[in-house]
Specification:
The chain is of the alpha+beta class. The protein is built from five helices and four strands. The protein has one domain. The longest helix has 14 residues.
Length: 135
């Protein structure tokens, strides 16, 4: 294992997961970063020089504090992420396509509103009939 890690580090390469199948891909780190940057540029995403996470966290806290009818005061602490961070992106390599583009996977678990969104999603599912049961 150490020899594989040494070879990856010395060749500035990385191991990435493939999009389909249970396979791994070894590619240069710069190539992976350029694939992610190409995806961001092609889809007209805008990058920011400042991190809006703290501002968004404050908005989430204010919203939770101003809605006592929806969120009981004794359970609001469960909905606030105490150490939020901006969502991160990684790309799964599409081996079955020409030029091997990526499928983006975004980790939202540390986002400021993740717990709040998860809670509301569970409540909505309780009160709405599931479409899969009626088919």
């Amino acid at each position: 294992m150490k020899s594989i890690q040494f070879k990856l580090r010395s060749n500035d390469a990385m191991v990435a997961q493939a999009d389909k199948g249970n396979s791994l891909v070894i590619l240069p780190t710069l190539q992976n970063e350029s694939k992610i940057q190409d995806f961001i540029n092609k889809n007209n995403f805008h990058t920011s020089t400042s991190n809006p996470t703290k501002t968004f966290q404050n908005q989430v806290r204010k919203t939770i504090n101003h809605t006592p009818n929806l969120i009981p005061p004794n359970s609001k602490w469960k909905l606030i992420n105490l150490n939020p961070s901006a969502p991160s992106i990684k790309g799964l390599i599409k081996l079955h396509k020409p030029d091997h583009p990526i499928r983006p996977v975004v980790n939202w678990r540390n986002a400021p509103a993740y717990n709040l969104a998860k809670s509301f999603n569970q409540k909505i599912n309780l009160f709405t009939p599931s479409l899969t049961h009626s088919m």
